[in-house]
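Structure (tokenized):
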């Protein structure tokens, strides 16, 4: 459908549906990967790589989403060489950026890293509402999302699923 001509309004809707399907596919892939990691089926493939390429690609991917939400996504490049699983690290960073875009009503998101002695600290900063101090431990529970304070539920908000 993306290759067909339906008129501007319909084409925007088709692009929106296509982007949503891509997001769902990515989410399902992430859940499968997490399941496999938990079960010990897959092991991280740790190699040394240039962080610059990984961060450039992720920032470019998320830039369009940020602009569509009226946000500014800034990126600070790094020449650091790190040892990690580049695919898993990319998934984690995409998740952080997607959440920042989802929960930041207006303002700016920053992706970058800081060198600290023998390691690199990757960071995603945003001007969103943040997570209340008393809810910090809850964000690590499976299928749990925190309802933003004093706001109606945002897209993607769900409560914990029953066990």
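Design, position by position:
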């Amino acid at each position: 459908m993306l290759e067909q001509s339906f008129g501007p309004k319909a084409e925007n809707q088709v692009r929106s549906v296509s982007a949503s399907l891509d997001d769902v596919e990515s989410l399902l892939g992430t859940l499968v990967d997490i399941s496999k990691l938990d079960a010990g089926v897959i092991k991280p493939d740790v190699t040394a790589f240039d962080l610059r390429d990984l961060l450039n690609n992720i920032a470019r991917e998320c830039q369009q989403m940020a602009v569509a939400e009226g946000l500014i996504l800034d990126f600070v490049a790094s020449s650091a060489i790190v040892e990690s699983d580049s695919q898993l690290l990319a998934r984690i960073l995409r998740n952080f950026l997607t959440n920042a875009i989802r929960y930041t009503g207006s303002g700016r998101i920053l992706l970058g890293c800081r060198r600290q002695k023998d390691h690199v600290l990757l960071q995603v900063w945003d001007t969103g509402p943040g997570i209340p101090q008393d809810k910090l431990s809850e964000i690590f529970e499976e299928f749990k999302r925190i309802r933003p304070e004093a706001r109606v539920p945002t897209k993607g908000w769900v409560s914990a699923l029953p066990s």
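Reviewer-requested clarification: The domain at 44-128 is CATH 3.30.565.10 (Heat Shock Protein 90). The longest strand covers residues 107-116.
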